[in-house]
Amino acid sequence: MSTQYEMVIGLETHIELRTETKAFCSCAVTFGAEPNTHCCPVCTGMPGAIPVLNERAVEYAIKAGLLLHCRVSLWSRMDRKNYYYPDLPKAYQISQYDHPICTDGWLDIPSGEGMKRIRIERLHLEEDAGKLTHTEHGTLLDCNRCGVPLIEIVTKPDFRSADEVTAYLQELRERIRFAGLSDCKMNEGSLRCDVNLSLRPAGSDRLGERAELKNLNSFQFAARAIAFEAGRQAAVLDAGGTLFAETRGFDERTGETFSMRPKETQEDYRFFPEPDLPPIVLTEETVARWESELPEPPASRRARYREAFGLNRETAEALTVSREAADAFEEAAGLTRYPRQLATLLASDPARLSQGAIPVSAAHLAALADLAGEKTIGSGTARELLSLLWREDQDPREAVVRLGLGKLSDPAALRALAREVIAGNPRMAEEYRAGKTAVLQALIGQMMRRTQGRADPGLSREALLSLLSI
Ligand SMILES: [Zn+2]
């Protein structure tokens, strides 16, 4: 794209809330279940079925709004958004129109020149539609997703590059996931984003005609769709053409966007207040209680861990991959004399840490860190023990004794072992005595190998030296 244009992007992000049941009925919220096994007259819109609002969905929506520094509306209401599409059996979606539950928030993201503030216009609560699967024999409809609670987060047109969009989505996903409000999996559709993109002459403050890009189901696809679409719009403008507001899809195979339909306007949806649901009325006390339940955000925890324990960035990031991991680390760190060893040990397998609940008790994690810190066991043994505890939680001190994993630090035993190693490698011993001291490392290596890494390296070295100097 030539530099005469400036890219202007606003985002609409949909996030499925991780409540146990749907927004307006008691059907379970699931992913990957047998199609059409979690639906009822309410979520499929049968005549006479009456919705009842799930309080947990309201709580999660407001917690998300608080994480994004939004103003919370103590009075809001649900509206009907009327449109027909095969994945929406009711032919309307229960959403929020002119009284959203949260407004006026912001999120700071890293950008080229330090931190940049992205303004959030609104966050509202709505329900998801069903899922269509297109096959060569026709289209399949799964209603399990109908009525799953969603939040839609709408930003101001504050982004100027694909990198800023990616940074925002990462920050948003981390905050929402850490607070346990959603798993935010783009590949499973629990986080979806639509990109509104237009170009304008550099320096202008008027907005151009925008295209809304839909169905971007990974960060990488979003970045590629933005790059393609900006280039396409620039080419149209350069050729003297005109752009019009439209909805465009993205083809993952070709990396191109394609026109789907002219952009609907808000009037097209004939919004009106949902007659089957009362307004949502909250007290300040309730909102304050929900706010107090929010965890400290991961970025601030990382800064605290690095400061307190002298951790590097990778280790701090691994420990804050989930709230469960960070909480487990903090609890165990308070019980061990070696919190830094504990951090390194836990962070040695980031994938395992990210899998939800930590199956090892804080006391056992702390005991393991103590064993490693006191050098009763080596770092390799500590990692093996951690894997063992992950499979079956137990006291690591007992496991060390039972499995004979403790470090060999008995001087007499090491001296006997050193004698064996020297006897088995007479040439190396000769070379050492002739001044080639580098072979000492190889001899220490032999001692480690014979003890499966349990020989204390410092004491092994001393034992070898005392024998070699005779
Ligand atoms: Zn239902």
Notable features of this structure?
nine-stranded mixed β-sheet; alpha+beta; 470 residues; single chain; binds zinc ion; elongated
What do you see in this structure?
- There is one protein chain.
- This protein has helices at 55-67, 162-178, 219-238, 284-293, 298-309, 313-319, 323-333, 339-347, 350-353, 362-373, 379-391, 396-403, 411-424, 426-433, 439-450, 457-468, and strands at residues 5-16, 71-72, 75-76, 79-82, 92-95, 102-111, 114-127, 131-135, 138-142, 149-155, 191-201, 211-216, 246-251, 256-262, 272-273, 280-281.
- With 470 residues, the protein is α+β, with helices and mostly antiparallel strands.
- It has 3 domains: 5-285, no CATH class; 295-403, no CATH class; 411-468, Orthogonal Bundle (Arc Repressor Mutant, subunit A).
- A hairpin with a 2-residue loop joins strand 6 (102-111) and strand 7.
- Helix 6 packs across helix 8 (339-347) and helix 8 (339-347) packs across helix 10 (362-373).
- It is elongated.
- The protein binds zinc ion (ZN).
- The site of zinc ion has 8 residues, from loops.
Radius of gyration: 30 Å
Number of strands: 16
Strand content: 15-25%
Bound molecules: zinc ion
Query: Total helix count?
Result: 16
Structural class: alpha+beta
What is the assembly state of the chains in this entry?
Answer: single chain
The tally of domains stands at 3
Q: What composes the largest sheet?
A: 9 strands, mixed
Which percent range fits the helix content? 25-40%
Instruction: Let me know the average pLDDT.
Output: 91
Query: Which of globular, elongated, flat, extended, rod-shaped describes the shape?
Result: elongated
Taking the alpha carbons of the first and last residues, their distance comes to 77 Å
Spatial order of strands in the largest sheet: 2-6-7-10-1-11-12-13-14
Low-pLDDT segments: none
